[in-house]
Amino acid sequence: MNNIVVSWIGNKIKSLRNQKNLSLNELSNQSKISKSLLSKIENSRTIPSLPVFINILESLEVAPKDFFEDMYLKNGHNFTVVKKEDRKTIEKEDRVGFKYNSIINQSLLNLNVDIVHLTVEPHAKYEPTSTDGYEFKIVLSGKIEYIIGEESTLLQEGDSIFFDARIPHYPKAAEERVQLLVIYFLFP
């Protein structure tokens, strides 16, 4: 998992605990999670498992949707772009003939996932739109400029983007057909 995200989650939990005037020991008792593990989470030395994370949020009386509401991505932008050449090969299982290239690892909870293959025809017309959730897109073929809020980025074959889809966004009309794999992470 991205170190920025791990740090953000730990800092957010600590901030919420302090806002509720709870000591580490009190949160430990309420959530039934060891003080040691909570300390590691708050200090970004580990990331909580889903059940542990849910127990912490319940003890802090915070809904997962609200927890991530003010999440900022890398470099203060409202999106994260991963260029094809920046992907990292990761070791996963001992399976001959399998090559895993990490594209993005983003922790979000309480979301519905919708995966689609999108074809954008040349000169397609788009109006800015927003969706209650997050979007991940990877360009399978072609290139396209994507506008998110007031920012734009050019995506080429193999590039990917992850962003908060509540921010108005749209692809600019491309000169060629573009194929994308899109994963929507939607709040219920």
Task: Give the structure's gist in a few sentences.
By secondary structure, this protein is an alpha+beta fold. It has helices at residues 3-19, 24-31, 35-42, 50-60, 64-67; strands at 79-82, 88-90, 100-102, 112-120, 133-141, 143-148, 151-156, 160-164, 169-171, 178-186. The protein starts with a helix and ends with a strand.
Write the layout of secondary structure elements.
Layout: H1 3-19, H2 24-31, H3 35-42, H4 50-60, H5 64-67, E1 79-82, E2 88-90, E3 100-102, E4 112-120, E5 133-141, E6 143-148, E7 151-156, E8 160-164, E9 169-171, E10 178-186
Antiparallel strand pairs: 1-8, 2-3, 4-10, 5-8, 5-10, 6-7, 6-9
The percent of residues in helical segments reads 25-40%
Strand content: 25-35%
End-to-end gap: 24 Å
Q: Give the tally of β-strands.
A: 10
| Low-pLDDT windows of residues | none
SSE order, one letter for each helix or strand: HHHHHEEEEEEEEEE
Calculate Rg over CA atoms: 19 Å
Would you kindly provide a written description of the structure presented here, covering whatever features stand out?
With 188 residues, this protein is α+β, with helices and mostly antiparallel strands. 26% of the residues lie in helices and 30% in strands. The strands form three sheets. A five-stranded antiparallel sheet has the order 1-8-5-10-4, with no helix packed on it. Strand 6 and strand 7 form a beta hairpin. It is elongated and about 60 Å long. The model has no long low-confidence stretch (mean pLDDT 80).
Label this structure with key terms.
single chain, about 190 residues, alpha+beta, 5 helices
